[in-house]
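Input (AMP-dependent synthetase/ligase domain-containing protein):
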Amino acid sequence: MEDFDYEHQGLPYEMFMRQAKETPDRIAVVSPGENRQLTYKELDDVTDVLATNMRINGVEEDCIVGIYMEKCLNYTISYIATLKAGATLVIVPDTVIYDPFLLCQFLKEHRISRMMFTPSLLEAVLDADRIDFRRAFHFMRVVLFCGEVLTTRLLERCLKALPSVQFFNMYGTSEANCVAIADLSEWYRQQKGEICGKKFCPVGKLLPGVKIVILNDEMQAQPVGVAGEIYIGGPKLALGYLKQPELTRARFIKKPDGVSDLIPSRLHRSGDWGYLLSDGTLEVCGRCDSKVKIRGYSIEIQAVEAALLSLPVVNACVVLVEGEEGQDKNLIAYVVPENQENMTIKRGEIRASLKKRLPFYMIPSYFVFLESLPLHAKSGKVDKKALPLIDKYEWIDMKSMSCPSTPTENSLVPFWADILSLKSVDIYESFFNLGGIESLGKTESKPFQLLAQLLDEMVNVQVSFRPM
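Output:
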């Protein structure tokens, strides 16, 4: 490499184009962390598709495109496609991207006109105090959402805060890159105020050459409007996962029998749950692996989160499962209230509203109120591992509780708290919502002894319990 004459090889973009023509079958880029690799021809093809789409959506020579993401194949694909489209590329430093104040300053100083955001990251910027968004986003023309499901509630907030910006929603996977894109600003105008009836924003029409089929658990193709797992085909699929043949066979499959001849023979199993509309628009509802089973009931975590987000008092939320397989499990909802000044929202109020939208077994047992959701330092997505842990036998939020107000309630609360091994209980909470099933499932007889004592002292009734 010492004899390599860099000065006469031209710009990096020119070097890439020349190498792609001379050695199309050589490996161009390897991402060990993702176990993926692309040849020069594959990288050339996939960046051509993305560059064409960027030009269709208005990227020109005077555009300055900001890119932030961890070092991965999509990082390489994005900056080569941006250069192919003729725009100027600016890499946003890691030290800037997660500080709302520094990020807004960076956008203004570098006159960034187009940028990709995860919904969580842009929401964090909008939540920041003492920032003039319109001034910081003065040069911004287009924002592309990617990486997470985008709620209609957040879109409306973005449109009101940044009316001069055009918003797009882009869907893709690491294994298939960009799959579909939607012009959300135009979609919002077409909805004419009916957006509140929808929970999630569409991801739009498929990009040229990309094919989608929706399959159920029996690998049968689903009709228009019926949800299932999204399978992707087309020229942009990766070869597989580097040195992981079993995972490659599991995620890259042969087209099942009975699927249309228009669908390619090789498909990538995305793990995403969604459906196609009659006009070819794709809607993504969440992850297939967000399904859990609690006390015999199959629960879709995304449906619980969607119900929470539909409540006027909820700005953002994440729902997790507490408990190991084979043990009693519960849902924990981490909620960011819409009004940050009112952090005393009652858990009972939220639970009562959810009961009108969800069956009883999908109501979270615990609610944790936060000022904001933690984000991953690299991807900008919600960092679920950073959410605060709770000890359900120690944790209690007195501010959000409905406390006893009558002599009878004051007498009953200590008994039920002792039975449930809690410091206190909300007078409107259900015995089972507070972990009653676990208490009844214990081998010792303490819960039953305390209940018998309660009945004896309160209503002078003697009872005995025996196992069934």
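The chain is about 30% helix and 20% strand.
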